[in-house]
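Blackboard transcription, Thursday session:
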Amino acid sequence: MEMKLAVAGLSALAYEGRLRAFRLLVRAGSAGIAAGELARQLDVPANTLSTNLAILSHAGLIESRRAGKSVIYSVRYGQMTALLQFLMEDCCAGSSEICAPLKEIALACDCADS
Amino acid sequence: MEMKLAVAGLSALAYEGRLRAFRLLVRAGSAGIAAGELARQLDVPANTLSTNLAILSHAGLIESRRAGKSVIYSVRYGQMTALLQFLMEDCCAGSSEICAPLKEIALACDCADS
DNA sequence: CCTTTATTTCGATTATCGCCGAAATATGGA
DNA sequence: TCCATATTTCGGCGATAATCGAAATAAAGG
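(Written on the board underneath:)
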């Protein structure tokens, strides 16, 4: 990932309103959440949320699909992981005590398989 | 990690000048880099960098220690990983195809041990 | 078509952020 | 103590970004 895209992603996540929305979407998985439903859960005006979803979308972190009258938003997990990898790049610098805690992240994500 | 601290961390990283500095520090490991040396490598005025380092520091992502006339900055890896974990919280939502790519992050960090 | 529901775009206001010159603080050495 | 080096703080200016009311666009149903 290049610097500009990483900055766009981090900027998109760097405001509470958008971070809250993103985290709800992360929980929702591939199914996603409709814009109106998100606005209701977050208790923010629909237009404000729409602007914020557009910013997350432009940063590549989420995507949208239309379903009837609603627009469903969902996380682009590939971009999300690319951003996290960008931050971790060359994190080790040769000393394992730095790297070790990072491995806990994977363990925290305890899926059934793999 | 609570929301406010996460937003502070993401905001601190959401600017190219600071993200560049942070990534250099991530590479440097525990040894850290002196403020002046960082300013030289990044080719930015010392006072501008100082302000940006203060923002990263206030967000808990880096710390500083004095060494003679210089001030050495280094990453607080614990806080860094806490921020990444915050973003990944409940990422799985039951489907492993979402979670699986996240595990690659840990594998990309291939230290000698663990 | 016309209405209702869902979402986005527009426009203007307000707040916040980044920058750098200049001055202040801190350390080490002659 | 005085000076040189290293870093931070202060000041204000210019740019960027967040918010929300109001209007515009899109889809479904009668």
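Lecturer's comment: The first strand of chain A starts at residue 33 and ends at 34.
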